[in-house]
Design goal:
Shape: globular
Helix content: 40-55%
Strand content: 15-25%
Largest sheet: 8 strands, mixed
Strand order of the largest sheet: 4-3-2-5-1-6-7-8
Length: about 475
Amino acid sequence: MNDYRQNGQSERFLILLARKEAEGRVDQFKTAHDVFSWMEHACAQTIQPGLERMEWMLNQLDHPERRLKFIHIAGTNGKGSTAAMIASVLKEAGYPTGMFVSPYVTSWHERIQFDGQSIEETSFVRWSNELKPLIEKMAEDGPGKPTPFEYWTLVSLCYFAREAFPWFVVWETGMGGRLDSTNVVFPLVSVITEIGYDHKNWLGDTLTEIASEKAGIVKSGVPVVCGSQKEEAVPVIRNISRDHRSPFYLLNKDFLVKDVHQDSDGQNFTFQNVYRELSGLSIPLIGDHQLQNAGTALMTLEVLRQAYATVIEPEHYRNGLRKTFWPGRLEKVSDSPHILLDGAHNIEGINALIQTIKKYHTDCGRIGFLVAVMKDKPVREMMKPLADAADFVTTTSLEDHSRSLAAEELARILKEINPRLSVESVSGEKKALHVFMEKLAAGDLGVVAGSLFLVSAVRPMLLDRK
């Protein structure tokens, strides 16, 4: 399979080069930085829900998405972890696997991955040069400029369909579902993780409305795996699945995780579903919510096995889950003091973080948080459990993000919630991290949370220190 893919890749590149030479085209982009600079004016820097731009481009590109087999994942929380577990098991089973996720934590490359490796800069630049004239044509004569996320989606489709040739693509939505740019594919299975309050301006004010938008990825006859446990959300997803005549599998009804043994380094458990039972499973991720994600990932793989003759042996499950790595999700980056990074950026994410801390870190000294949030989030609701659990908080604002709430405003909100809380505001994540680290003693627990952008900014600094 690998030799065939590599030969196909070489032939494709020769065809592309020959076509480019015949047309007399010259590549404008030489580096990823060239592409990012161009994207600042070539892409609309606003949220624009809708599929018309994606459909226009895919028609021009002769529909590369039709050559790929997708596992489509939507939800408010848990998408990334669920995607990582699915991809890790498929890779362990010998299936070349692509993965598209958002946002990134460690590097821009990780948005697009193939067999656990991020896209090479040369490939990103190559496909950007291919897309550039079409993007500019669409802006002038078509439905308008794409958003940056739409652009990334297009690059990933070209890369997977015409260069990497994965057997499966684990395909994560961005903000929503029904109008998300990823919703131009017809998948093998649709996956919906936990539903919560986020992006209410775009998705709705209630869990019912948000669930309806997320369930917009459901396609006729395509199996649906639902990991949500929200009473308001589940009936909506079930009804939409029924209307599409799609088999529906629900966590804690059609599949479940049991016999759990947990510690600060991971969790061991047994998985049971309508087909069989698998014991001796483990994940290196802590928190009850990660068990929920693991169950959802395993049921998705079981659907592939049962409905699409995908060969996955018990050892593939065990080894793939054990090897799963997903940065910035309760990731431990220091032992003394104990420091965790968590991308919790909405109410449900913060609640899950605080519950996990209370469960697994009862023997630590003080608990301190380094926090930044975006202006469009329900800040007061997010900060309430954090303010109640913390001994001290350092607030900051992100230098390169105009959506970031001012550090002083975030500090004021925290003091209003808990007047006894020690709060210090420091603008700029680098300086804020230094101030925060100065406050931590050896036995304390330090947690960085509130935004994946903050985690992405401080993670390299903390790993360098380690």
